[in-house]
Amino acid sequence: MATILVALQFNGGNAGIIPERTVAIANKLNDYQLGVHCKDKNHDLGFHVLPVGGSYNFKFVVDPFVHNTLYFCFFSWTTGGHYFNIYVQTRDLCSYCYWEIVASGPCLVWKDNRQCYNWNQPTKIA
């Protein structure tokens, strides 16, 4: 079974058994470049700077059995910075997840809907 899963993953990752996802992030801040740094527990995707109106995307394969795939990003611009869980497998049903980043929070645009979210709350270290 493991051999089949590895073979499917190396065969483009989109064989129907191991679904591939794309996250696209668009800078919709009116006057600021947007810094984006995304990662999951095993992959650091690096820091990217998006001009106003610019975008960045990345692809990955979700876990079809455990359903715990999570990617989070730190978004920064001149007047602030915030964290957000940009892909949560149990929340996000999209295979192409298009996010518009505005100062008040990220908005997922999917099908004919636009769902805006609050930024993650800052964590307090005791």
Could you explain how this protein is built, in words?
The protein is mainly beta. 7% of the residues lie in helices and 49% in strands. The protein has one helix and nine strands, in the order αβββββββββ. It has a five-stranded mixed beta sheet with strand order 4-1-7-8-9, with no helix packed on it. The radius of gyration is 16 Å and the shape is globular.
Task: Provide a quick synopsis of the model.
With 126 residues, the protein is mainly beta. Helix content is 7%, strand content 49%.
Q: What's the SSE pattern?
A: HEEEEEEEEE
Report the span from N to C terminus. 44 Å
- Side-by-side strand order of the widest sheet: 4-1-7-8-9
Q: Any low-confidence stretches, pLDDT <50, length ≥5? A: 1-15
Number of helices: 1
The pLDDT mean sits at 86
Structural class: mainly beta
- Outline the biggest β-sheet: 5 strands, mixed
Architecture blueprint of SSEs:
Elements: H1 2-10, E1 20-27, E2 34-39, E3 44-50, E4 55-61, E5 70-77, E6 80-88, E7 96-102, E8 105-110, E9 113-116
Parallel strand pairs: 1-7
Antiparallel strand pairs: 1-4, 2-3, 2-5, 5-6, 7-8, 8-9
Task: Give keywords.
126 residues; mainly beta; five-stranded mixed β-sheet; four-stranded antiparallel β-sheet; 7% helix
